[in-house]
Amino acid sequence: MKISSCLNNTPYRPRKVLGVSRLSFLEFLRFQNPELNEDQILSKMKEQGKDPVEILTEHQRQIACEQNLAAVLRKLDISFRITKRMGDASKCVNWADLVVPIGGDGTFLLASNLIKDNRKPVFGINPNVSGRGNIFALPSKYAVDIESIFEKLYTGKYTLLMRSRIRTIMNGEGLYGRPFHIHEKSRTRGERRDETLVRSTQRKIADSLQPRQRILPWLALNELKISTRCILKRGDKHCSREIQVFMGEFLAARPISFHVQVEEQETFFIRCTGICVCTGSGSRSWYKSMNSQSGETVRSIVEIATGKKLSPEETNELLYKYHRALLYPPEGLQMTYAIREMYHTTRCTKYKCCPDRQRCFKLTVKSRGFDAGLVIDGSISLPFNDGTTASFEIKPEYSLRNIVLS
Length: 406
Known about the structure:
The protein is of the alpha+beta class. It folds into three domains: 16-157, Rossmann fold; 166-187 and 208-231 and 244-284 and 329-398, Tumour Suppressor Smad4 (Sandwich); 288-326, no CATH class. It has helices at residues 25-32, 38-47, 52-75, 86-92, 105-112, 146-154, 193-208, 229-234, 236-239, 286-291, 295-306, 312-325; strands spanning 16-21, 79-83, 98-102, 121-122, 159-163, 166-171, 180-181, 213-215, 223-228, 244-249, 256-262, 267-272, 274-278, 335-340, 357-360, 362-367, 372-376, 380-383, 389-394, 400-404. The strands form four sheets. Strands 7, 9, 10, 13, 14, 15, 17 and 18 form an eight-stranded antiparallel beta sheet that branches. The chain has a six-stranded antiparallel beta sheet with strand order 8-6-19-16-11-12, with no helix packed on it. A hairpin with a 4-residue loop joins strand 11 and strand 12 (267-272). Helix 2 packs across helix 3 (52-75). It is globular, with a radius of gyration of 23 Å. It starts with 15 loop residues before the first strand and ends with a strand.
């Protein structure tokens, strides 16, 4: 991984710190069940097969990390605000000169979406020191020794990783509606049909008065997704850790059609179940899972191509090389798209078929979907229906200034 400098050597003394903390599962349950006390909530979770000790321990770790960060900042005479509400965090982000997400990769992605330029630094602290697959947070040892983080910042013993982010520009109708959060369960449950139709007509009138182009204010650190709403909901536990864009239909059983153009090359018409567009950071997440292969597949292909049967050791070595080749540096200025379950027909010859995976500097996708959506970093979802076009690009000024400690 290439980092902007091996050792920064420039002391950094933040004066105002914004801590963006995740809601623990116990806090979420309290919010959902205000009539129950803590013991009743934990007892209810035990009846549902969940471990109450694990729930309580996770909550205590989260609160302890928040309190430790606050104590260190008071000791260093640094102004700070710690919030669990993204609405409050968005109001404070311009006030702060350092943002500290307190949680896993999902919290880091949500907090990074608040940062609109490449000048405000950010580092993450994950209270779950045994967490697996941690991409963005500092090493787990710093979760229990927060003061040492600021000691290294003060002495310049840190590095800066300028993580690339994807800018999305959309063209079409209805681009300025309220975005749908991927973790919401439903949108219009229990509405009367006539009320829905009236609201739909009002939206159409309002949409007709809006500009037909929108530069989205959210920069994708991991990935963008275009897919069906059911697919997106079904995978939201995993999507929360991604840095990408994904596009597709909201009904899981329905394929979606796209016009895809890479840079200024030929435009392809494809049918698939979605497209994932990722950065170098996102190449370690869902994109990697989408393109992973099994040992059985590798052995079969090699045997068909060469007639040779690979041993288990040879298979594992080849698999390792293949999966490593999927990854590329987080600061790279190219993005990679991957088409999910593309339909191959007789019209798709070896000379005319759209590559199902390709690295590029710019990508343009036109939707032919009926009830499709575009999701940024597994959280923010916008409609992406018939006739709407989205262009994706990466530029240095869109980068995220990520503080890295060894």
